[in-house]
Amino acid sequence: MNELKVSPKGRVAFVSGANRGIGRAITIELLKEGAKKVYAGVRNLKSLDDLKPEYGDRLIPIQLDLKNDKLIFRAGRLVKDVEILINNAGVYESGGFFSDETLDSLEDNFGVNVMGLVKLSISLIDHLKNKPCAAIVNVASVLGLASMPFSGTYSASKAAVHSITQGMRGELTNSNVLVMGVYPGPIETDMTRDLDMDKDSPQNVANDIVNALKEGSEYVFPDVMSKQVGELFFTEPLSIEKQFGSFVSEEQEA
Fold it and tell me: Cα separation of 114 and 89, whole Å?
């Protein structure tokens, strides 16, 4: 079991999906905590222009689209000094397993949330292993621990991220790389604006993630809902499935 503590102070990080939501908040938090440099993986290189006056050359936008293999592996060639990888980029496509959009949503969710994450990690792993101390942070979801009916294919993709995180951790046991899984609940972002439930702020999530890096945590439940789910995950995991399974969408109730 790793006991690495990876403070961002003086280190170089790469954040995928850094243009908004949790990714943007993590990027800012890393810079505030003294990161030497943050590579911000974004589709639009100008999307973080408003942060440049404050952070200058410490913030470096890198064009990234997890559906584009060329951009993924190009990023790997550009960020050889990276020490902390934050696999944050993802999509949310709703749909259960017996809905009209099942196959499309399954393909979209897995294409980005799973395949994109793995490809980016592969492109950077040699850089990370060559550093004295490094970290991979995979942003999963509480829905990766149990499925909700109207988000079945998304839940399955995040369950894969959970399993991938465990697999990476196993492969990197006794290495210099901390592997952290982050399991947020509903967060106030563009991705979740149509979800009718209480949401935490991206800033709180980012703060918890950075603190967890400094503490060397392997499991992070960074908001009010996820902390409750986290307690059940370690004690009564089947109760999470029952609770989440009771959620139904408005369409299903109609």
Answer: 10
SS3 of 195-231: CCCCCECHHHHHHHHHHHHHHCCCEECCCHHHHHHHH
Residue range 172-225, pLDDT digits in tens: 999 999 999 999 998 775 544 554 545 588 999 999 999 999 999 999 999 988
H-type helices in the chain, by residue range?
A: 21-32, 52-55, 69-78, 102-109, 117-129, 152-171, 202-215, 224-235, 237-245, 250-253
Domain 12-253 CATH assignment equals 3.40.50.300: no
> Is the distance from CB of 49 to CB of 100 less than 8 angstroms?
no
| Pairing mode of beta strands 84-87, 59-63 | unpaired
161 and 140 in contact (C-beta within 8 Å)?
yes
Query: What pLDDT is attached to residue 200?
Result: 82
